[in-house]
Amino acid sequence: MSTNAKTTNLKDKKKIICGACDADLAPDHYGIQCVQGHHYCTDCSKQIVNLFFSDPQVYIPLRCVQCRVELNPCVFERQLTLTQIDFYNKHMLALVWVKELVGPDERLDNCPFCSSAVIRGKNDPKFFSCEHPECGKTSCLVCQKACPSLFTDYATEEELEEMIRHSICADLADDKQAFDLAVENGQKVSCPKCGLAGMKDDSCTHMTCPTCCQVWCYFCGKRVEDCDKEQNGNNGIIDHNHDWDVNPKRCPMYFTQIQDIDPRWPDNETNCLIMFHRNRSLRLLRDVLGKLGKDRIDKLNNHFHVLDSCGFSLREILQEDLTLIQGRDRFRRNNNKN
């Protein structure tokens, strides 16, 4: 994906800026940085470290807080104090297992309350009975909450109600995952070749993946080889931008160009990016709602409140006009008249 950092020119030199506090950084600064060129000063890096330690099971694998691309562990590890290293290593073991030991029909289940992890089959129950001697808790892997520990054949009414709630978690697990993925993927775009995902900076829509070197278009998500381009052109992905304002198969080089034919779009890249990902999020959520159906979505929201907390209303998801660029036909007619 784009390797352009958030920079500004000063005395003809490239100046690196912290993505959180806008502080100036030296090229060899000691803070966190990701492969897409997002940098963080040491103070802000400490805040990212604290975020990981607040809930390590949620924040593994380590990701850039801006683009969500996975971080190189070494740039994170050098931020740790001696007292943090042992705790960190215990939780990172789970990530190593995922990458190296887990088979295609397996999954790695982590105890939400300690560093214990076990490789299990993909279709195994969504409950985890921790065998760590200092933990021993039974938990629901869907809602990440503790389940009643039943040591006898008899359970209280409260314990039975709680187990029923967790059985509903298990029934809705796949639906919840689909909904959560739609919310997450709405805020990033994946490389069409290797799948590396993130959010672009304020530069153009031409992307070069730092992992596989694929050139692609952020706006439509296609490889340069698959993009519709000007016939007999020899300018690569730039030919995909030719006549974008009248050809719905073409894309603009910059988001800010769209306002020339569609006044809904802002005049700055930051707000344009927000609008683009809002549209993408609504489109993905609409697809999920269409696949699951109203009854299933109602059940999912009643149990997990996913719809209430996603940032969009049901009306917006189902009824908002998601035409990404309006006015192309009108612009083409005006050009023909002239």
Order of helices and strands: EEEHHHEEEEHHEEEEHHHHH
Figure out the total of helices.
Answer: 10
Mean pLDDT: 85
Identify the overall geometry: globular
Largest sheet: 3 strands, antiparallel
Distance between the termini: 40 Å
Helix/strand/pairing class, anyone?
A: alpha+beta
Lateral arrangement of strands in the main beta sheet: 1-2-3
Our estimate of the beta-strand percent is 5-15%
The tally of beta strands, per DSSP, is 11
Keywords: Metal-binding, Repeat, Transferase, Ubl conjugation pathway, Zinc, Zinc-finger
Organism: Adineta steineri
GO molecular function, one term: transferase activity
Protein name: RING-type domain-containing protein
